[in-house]
Amino acid sequence: MKCGSIVLGLVLLTLSISIALTEKKIVCYVGTWSVYRPNRGSFNIENIEPSLCTHLMYAFFGINEDGTIRIIDPYLDLEENWGRGHIKRFNELKLHHPKLKTMAAVGGWNEQSHPFSVVAASPTLRQRFIKDSIKFCKKHNFDGIDLDWEYPGQRDVASAEFSASRSYDIPRVSAALHFINVMTYDMHGSWDPYTGFNSPLYSGAKDVTDLQQQLNVNSSIHYWIELGAPKEKIVMGIPSYGRTFTLVDASVNGVGAPASGPGKAGQYSREAGMIGYNELCEKFLSEKWDITCNDKQLVCYATSGNQWISFEDVKSVAHKMDYFSQMNLGGVMVWSLETDDFHGVCHDTRYALMSVIYEHIYGQSPPLNNTTTATPPPSGSSPAPPGGCSPEGVFPNEEVCDKYFICDSNGRRFDFSCPAGLLFDPVLALCNWPHLVDCDL
């Protein structure tokens, strides 16, 4: 998902360089900052189910104007200075899943396009970026680089097709890359003055202009194919989050209804205008929402008072997977794991949306109960005796402020100690300076 003030729903994409696979790809992004989310929303490396994906994307790293890759959150990413060592733990998932490919995602909407443009304009800087990318991957044990450049040559356009054709030389790009993630979502959002679907499969009755008829999955995929992208290199994006709006008039609440701005923030992501499926499904369990599904566009929206949400569910994801098979595309990409129901709060299985994708491609349920997690953080941990530990997540120790524990997916508890001089911060789910932590023990 990409945030910020962008004009009428753009088709966003990332260009991925990796070892080519003949099998259908399931490309899974992990927004690593989600570890800082509160309570059940905190998503740690131990929450990843590697068996669900063929490729795991670590999002994000930055790019400097000198052509080198920049680590954005050293405390989270590295082990130095008592860091959490997320990169190492992320790539250790391959120890038990040797077919898994891990990739470093460089860029993102917040990174801006300018540094990419500076590097791309200089043969010397391009060569430096290539060398630094190889060095970075070897140092941190990544298998490839994901270039998330949004968008070369322009940042604010009002046409999905215009965005692709203006930004990318599609035939040359396709020849140079192993696969292309076409981000067929964010078609509509709080930047629009009216409600609309985040990722409609087809155009709808309200789509009367040429522009409006472009803003759907089918039009976007066909456009890339028509401009020369091979089907086997196209990886179709599916969002595990919804777009939210605040209605001008709660009684006028259909598709295309006037909206005054973004909807309320979710309880975990805490970002107005979007909501994770994990947040939304919990709301559906505890609050009254009216749900309406569009039989032509094959997606749904929910309303409650002046709140309007376009969202994906297991049925809409299944429709998209049927389309994926009909088009014989190279794979499916999901943004992102941390907004699926990864705890299984709303379903009888964890990762309800990802499970639909896996079952469609492999013809069987994913082996969620047999997945081995990565090594926990190197903080002097040891598993507590069996006795039941739930829900899955990171929690403060019950007796002291400088310790915490992790409940893994198998109900096991692992106890950890913070580095000397630090206390566990239950809000951020990390070890922090004492003056920043509220602990009454």
Automatic annotation (TrEMBL):
SUPFAM superfamilies: (Trans)glycosidases (SSF51445), Chitinase insertion domain (SSF54556), Invertebrate chitin-binding proteins (SSF57625). Belongs to the glycosyl hydrolase 18 family. Chitinase class II subfamily. Residues 386-441 form the Chitin-binding type-2 domain. Keywords: Chitin-binding, Disulfide bond, Glycosidase, Hydrolase, Signal. Residues 24-364 form the GH18 domain. Residues 368-389 are annotated as: Disordered. GO terms for biological process: carbohydrate metabolic process; chitin catabolic process. One of its GO terms (cellular component) is extracellular region. GO terms for molecular function: chitin binding; chitinase activity. The gene is 6030800. This is Chitinase.
